[in-house]
Amino acid sequence: MAQDLEAGPRVTTAAFADRLAEAVERKRSQLVVGLDPSLELLPLEVRGESILGRAETARAYARFCCGIVDAVAPYVVAVKPQVAFFETLGGDGLTALERVCDHARNVGLLVIADAKRGDIGSTARAYATAFLEPREDGTPLADALTVSTYLGHDSIEPFLQACRLHGAGIFCLVRTSNAGAGDVQELTLSDGRRVWQHVASLVDDWGADLVGERGLSSVGAVVGATVPRAVGEARRLLPRSILLLPGVGAQGATPADVARAFTSGPASALVTASRSVIYAYRGGQSDWRAAAGSEAARLRSEVWSVSGW
Amino acid sequence: MAQDLEAGPRVTTAAFADRLAEAVERKRSQLVVGLDPSLELLPLEVRGESILGRAETARAYARFCCGIVDAVAPYVVAVKPQVAFFETLGGDGLTALERVCDHARNVGLLVIADAKRGDIGSTARAYATAFLEPREDGTPLADALTVSTYLGHDSIEPFLQACRLHGAGIFCLVRTSNAGAGDVQELTLSDGRRVWQHVASLVDDWGADLVGERGLSSVGAVVGATVPRAVGEARRLLPRSILLLPGVGAQGATPADVARAFTSGPASALVTASRSVIYAYRGGQSDWRAAAGSEAARLRSEVWSVSGW
Question: Min CA distance, B153 vs chain A (Å)?
């Protein structure tokens, strides 16, 4: 249990930011592939007996995601399973998620669980335990987690603790890629800044004591690639944070839109693409694994090229 | 799957707000008990063989929560399982959560899943499916869900859809009960309002077309009981919303602090208490079920009394 592991302040693995930077430089890749399994989009051969129910669907999700992991592994530094899709299948879905995360880690990839969790007090601690602290077998479910910021510093503190003690990372929601982001994040404050700009400065503070040997903090930020102006501004406000940039591909942004994000180092930003990679096979007749691998390879080269490293 | 169920716009059950209002008036209770299972706080007799691992711990959580459900059922209108604690146990934990939710619904209680989910596009849809749409057996996991608001209207829309089609409810995070709430929620906007007050007005809009026969909307709001000033102001900004008020008990607020929340009707606010009820046995020598039942009975009377109905 978490309590025992926190008895002494020992870091069991290197800082997340350093592990990521090492992987980026070794693989010359800043690409993260999102795993968003959806039954009606899976190749027929993978669906199997999914019509029989949830347990079979969960097994199909695991088969598909593990196949994608193998196909994209040479071209990406991390995978980003989207927890929601697994949750639709209850306990069976979570078991499938664990299998996929374990497989990705076994083939040498980092795992960023996209769950956007956020709560207070003992509940926030429980989320940190669920995603970032060692389980019975000594490994955490994920290396990093996306987290909500609306509840403020005490909702983040348990995750920071996991970063300090277990070499975990977090990506805080700052400016998202969707149309509704304007409703709250783009409101103008009395000092003239936008809400998301203020949140960015909070994130910079939270990550100040988690800067690793490569100069990057294990406290990163989610900034939508669909708003290039915001990407540049976020880079300025968060000089040491790794920016996780969703929105390239299916949501319409291009790697060129995010070039400015990489000015703090080759590993200072990560481009995530999900449906455009994992369902690439739907655009043609090729094998689903081969199609995902090709698209990941193409995108990895394009991103590396615009990053200027 | 959800897609089939949405082919025609049929509501399979009454609106959440009406179901809740009926329960409040019938039971003369505005109390919701939070289910926050934590191994080290469970009665020894319930822990069983939990030392053997996660699966056994999950069974202990289910035993404990189902026992609490039975003990408090006469005094509460709903239970609020805190999903984080179940997630610490992976697939076994989610299976336990399903068992607890099903049991609560079987004994006639409403279930408010406290998960604070929020994401965009197909991911938001998946969360709505996971928590609020009918599963294979035709019932949803929960009647209502707490949701994040930072991502704006399109992150909420799939949940509103579940309210319209399946009689579900949501509680949107507006002003939370923790110290860090000031970091973002209390920022002053250029028009002089606080961020949370703006969010409250958004929530009022989102719920406008989901007002039921009793005059209350199925789109509610989470407002911390620890800030009595905010409770009164939220009531004014959200005249038709059911306010979910955490913070009474272990977090220090009293029922008197939230009396103003009930001015829109007996069911227009719900007081939630978690640890002070479910772990009431730790304050004395009594049976854990009896202690939880007594504390729930006491709190229900106190809340009903201050509500003025």
Answer: 5
CA nearest A275: which of A259, A288, A287?
A288
Strand spans (E) along chain B: 31-35, 78-81, 110-117, 144-147, 169-175, 217-223, 241-245, 269-273
Residues of B with active-site annotation: 116
What tokens were used for B248?
């009474």
Pairing of strands B269-273, B31-35: parallel
Q: What radius of gyration do chain A's Cα atoms show? A: 19
**Is B87 a residue whose pLDDT tops 60?**
yes
- Determine the pLDDT at residue B6: 44
B3 has a chain A CB within 8 A of its CB: yes
Identify the three-state secondary structure at position B35. strand
Domain count across chain A: 1
Residue B12: predicted pLDDT: 57
Is B184 in Cβ contact with A199 (below 8 Å)?
Answer: yes
Task: Please report which helix (H) or strand (E) contains residue B17, including its range.
Answer: helix B16-27
Domain span at residue A206 reads: 2-307
> Looking at beta carbons, which residues of chain B come within 8 Å of A179?
152-154
Q: State the CATH number of the domain containing residue B85.
A: 3.20.20.70
Query: Which residues of chain A, if any, have pLDDT below 70?
Result: 1-12
The predicted model gives B53-58 an average pLDDT of 95
Of B14, B3, B8, whose CA–CA distance to B167 is shortest?
Answer: B14
Chain B residue with minimum CA distance to A189: B189
Q: Where are the alpha helices (DSSP H) in chain B?
A: 2-5, 16-27, 44-47, 54-72, 83-87, 90-106, 121-132, 153-166, 181-184, 195-206, 228-237, 275-278, 288-307
pLDDT digits (tens, 9 = 90+) for B167-207: 999 999 999 999 999 999 999 999 999 999 999 999 999 99
Average pLDDT, chain B: 94
Interface contact flag, A95 B98, Cβ < 8 Å: no
Give catalytic residue positions of A.
116
